[in-house]
């Protein structure tokens, strides 16, 4: 029953959206208060701020979209409302993916101790590289959003069977849509591969450091922090893998009329911004302390 799917989906996405917006608004607020006090941002805080903002607006726009699609679907017949929703949703979703990957790259370069000349150079220059990584994320996301706008302009909604962002449109299996699907799939795969190539060396380095401390009987606070970071990176890798799988399945089932399966995929997909932000909070002493104090 499509109506029951829509009602259940609206309730679940509302809970996810408000929880995710609250969590990311908390991260942004703490970082902005810190900026006012210190008058400066380090590279880690720049990435976290950008990530928190992109996730907040992605969840906000997505919730408004679903609310209108269920309560007042006729508004999507007015141009350019669906096109703008598609563009903004995909811009912030793409930013979310790429900035998450940038954060993983940053941690890998900062923490892992490789003795290669190129890696040492990157470690020395990472603070200067971060703004360029963020700029690259914005430009890539902008390209995807422009493609989404143009693509939505050429397609038609079928609100009785489809509900979601621009990937959930009632697509026709026409060859002219293949380049867009290919580009988006390539983007998802590249971001995921970047995370894997950054997270695995990071986990290996942390685990080796932990084993070395155990061998030397150095049961210190540093070792506890090391274990905490390992757990955080593992958790991030797992939920990023789930999110990547959901994105790929969304592309696959965009042309199919399977509402229940699409519903389940979207529920997992839109839980990612809140779950990863929680991991970031509890792996950051400053954010964790502020959250506990606030609670």
From TrEMBL:
It is a multi-pass membrane protein. GO terms for molecular function: bitter taste receptor activity; G protein-coupled receptor activity. It comes from the Eukaryota. Keywords: G-protein coupled receptor, Membrane, Receptor, Sensory transduction, Taste, Transducer, Transmembrane, Transmembrane helix. The keyword Secreted does not apply. GO terms for cellular component: membrane. Its main location: membrane. The chain crosses the membrane at residues 15-36, 48-72, 97-122, 129-151, 177-204, 233-254, 260-283. InterPro entries: TAS2R. The keyword Membrane applies. It is found in: Membrane. Belongs to the G-protein coupled receptor T2R family. PANTHER family: TASTE RECEPTOR TYPE 2, TASTE RECEPTOR TYPE 2 MEMBER 40. This is Taste receptor type 2.
């Amino acid at each position: 029953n499509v109506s029951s799917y829509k009602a259940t989906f609206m309730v679940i996405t509302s809970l996810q959206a408000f929880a995710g917006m609250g969590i990311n608004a908390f991260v942004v607020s703490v970082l902005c208060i810190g900026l006012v006090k210190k008058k400066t941002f380090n590279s880690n805080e720049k990435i976290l701020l950008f990530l928190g903002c992109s996730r907040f607006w992605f969840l906000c726009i997505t919730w408004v979209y679903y609310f209108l699609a269920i309560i007042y679907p006729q508004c999507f017949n007015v141009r350019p409302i669906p096109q703008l929703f598609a563009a903004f949703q995909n811009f912030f979703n793409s930013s979310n993916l790429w900035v998450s990957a940038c954060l993983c790259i940053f941690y890998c370069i900062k923490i892992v101790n490789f003795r290669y000349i190129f890696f040492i150079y990157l470690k020395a220059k990472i603070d200067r590289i971060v703004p360029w990584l963020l700029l690259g994320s914005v430009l890539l996301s902008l390209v995807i959003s422009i493609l989404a706008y143009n693509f939505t302009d050429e397609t038609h909604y079928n609100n009785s069977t489809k509900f979601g962002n621009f990937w959930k449109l009632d697509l026709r299996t026409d060859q002219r849509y293949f380049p867009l699907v290919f580009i988006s799939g390539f983007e998802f795969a590249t971001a995921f591969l970047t995370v894997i190539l950054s997270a695995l060396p990071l986990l290996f380095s942390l685990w080796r450091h932990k084993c070395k401390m155990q061998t030397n009987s150095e049961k210190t606070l540093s070792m506890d922090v090391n274990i905490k970071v390992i757990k955080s990176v593992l958790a991030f890798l797992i939920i990023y893998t789930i999110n990547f799988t959901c994105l790929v399945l969304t592309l696959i089932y965009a042309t199919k009329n399977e509402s229940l399966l699409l519903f389940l995929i979207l529920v997992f997909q839109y839980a990612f911004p809140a779950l990863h932000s929680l991991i970031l909070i509890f792996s950051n002493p400053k954010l964790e302390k502020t959250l506990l104090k606030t609670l």
